């Protein structure tokens, strides 16, 4: 049984991966700083089946103690600051966490001889595409990140690939598309739409709402990352998407239909600085080489997500209190 060290394992995507890995019989060690977006409640179903260390990945000494004690065979690195709007307001934590934190992990993985280092990147490292284009990004597309967030993730992405090339560290890079699903922190677009609609409050949509994103259900993403962790080729990059693109306005309207709310709740706000127009990727490589395809179509996943938020408002309300001042800054 392989021992996995999972960074960001109390986060949105990381927690789904931890639960899946435990179900598959892996010995899981979770490292998470438990900042505003981390929450061990996401792992309540598997409490007692993993070992947890509250550590900021910027703290190399503390991380090294975990490597010494646990001797992980595989590192799956989810931990990151990940919200574009926050990176625009204050890029500093994105630079230190996403770049320095990744550097610390790569150095320790090299020093302690891990067998695999799975570096979770993002489709946003590619930059954007024209709205009227049918082009999609492949793993060989150049990286042209647009925001402080995506620049920091592109840096972490390239660091991992440099450590493979220079030091022979067994790095695999995964670039998922936009995730959505239960337990997502309510600062992200889909939870914002759901929760504003439930409260009959205006739903803020940047610009014209025509910006397009490719969406993958979080459980499918976790499955894909585990498949790549198990069978992916060392040194390779894998796009992990669904092929399902939707306009932001279309997503908001779909949520309103599910909840039986009027479209008059939609309110257009000033566009985000440097707002990417469209994300779209080819995930042909992970399908053809590893046989992985997402199981959940967008309509099914969105309905399940809306239902989860409706049924878990106690958790959501606690998070919303943390967001009141932040939303005033972002949606002016």
What does this structure look like?
The chain has 332 residues and is α/β, with parallel strands linked by helices. It is 43% helix and 17% strand. The chain contains 11 helices and 12 strands. It has helices at 12-23, 60-70, 84-89, 92-111, 148-167, 189-198, 218-231, 248-259, 284-290, 298-311, 313-330, and strands spanning 3-7, 27-32, 50-54, 74-77, 116-120, 171-176, 178-180, 203-206, 212-217, 237-240, 245-247, 266-269. α1 links the parallel β1 and β2 (27-32). The longest helix has 20 residues, at 92-111.
Topology, element by element:
Elements: E1 3-7, H1 12-23, E2 27-32, E3 50-54, H2 60-70, E4 74-77, H3 84-89, H4 92-111, E5 116-120, H5 148-167, E6 171-176, E7 178-180, H6 189-198, E8 203-206, E9 212-217, H7 218-231, E10 237-240, E11 245-247, H8 248-259, E12 266-269, H9 284-290, H10 298-311, H11 313-330
Parallel strand pairs: 1-2, 1-4, 2-3, 4-5, 5-6, 6-10, 7-9, 8-12
Antiparallel strand pairs: 9-11
Helix pairs in contact: 1-7, 2-4, 4-5, 6-8, 8-10
């Amino acid at each position: 049984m392989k021992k996995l060290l999972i960074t960001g394992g109390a986060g949105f995507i990381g927690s789904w991966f931890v639960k899946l890995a435990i179900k598959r019989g892996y010995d899981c060690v979770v490292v998470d700083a438990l900042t505003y977006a981390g929450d061990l409640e996401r792992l309540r179903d598997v409490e007692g089946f993993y070992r947890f260390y509250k550590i900021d990945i910027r703290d190399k000494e503390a991380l090294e103690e975990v490597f010494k004690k646990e001797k992980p065979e595989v590192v799956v690195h989810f931990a990151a600051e990940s919200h574009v709007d926050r990176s625009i307001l204050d890029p500093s934590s994105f630079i230190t966490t996403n770049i320095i934190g990744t550097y610390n992990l790569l150095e320790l993985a090299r020093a302690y001889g891990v067998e695999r280092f799975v570096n979770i990147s993002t489709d946003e490292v590619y930059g954007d595409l024209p709205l009227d284009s049918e082009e999609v990004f492949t793993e060989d597309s150049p990286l042209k990140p647009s925001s402080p967030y995506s620049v920091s993730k592109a840096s972490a992405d390239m660091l991992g690939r440099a450590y493979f090339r220079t030091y022979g560290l067994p790095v695999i890079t995964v670039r998922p598309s936009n995730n959505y699903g239960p337990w997502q922190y309510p600062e992200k677009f889909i939870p914002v739409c759901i929760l504003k609609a439930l409260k009959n409050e205006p739903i803020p949509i940047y610009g014209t709402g025509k910006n397009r994103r490719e969406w993958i259900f979080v459980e499918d993403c976790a499955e894909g990352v585990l498949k790549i962790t198990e069978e992916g080729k060392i040194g390779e990059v894998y796009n992990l998407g669904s092929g399902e693109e939707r306009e932001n306005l279309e997503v908001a309207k779909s949520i309103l239909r599910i909840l039986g709310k009027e479209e008059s709740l939609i309110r257009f706000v000033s566009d985000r600085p440097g707002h990417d127009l469209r994300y779209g990727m080819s995930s042909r490589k992970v399908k053809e080489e590893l046989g992985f395809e997402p199981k959940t179509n967008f309509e099914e996943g969105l309905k399940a997500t809306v239902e989860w938020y409706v049924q878990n408002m106690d958790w959501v309300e606690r998070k919303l209190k943390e967001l009141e001042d932040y939303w005033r800054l972002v949606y002016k």
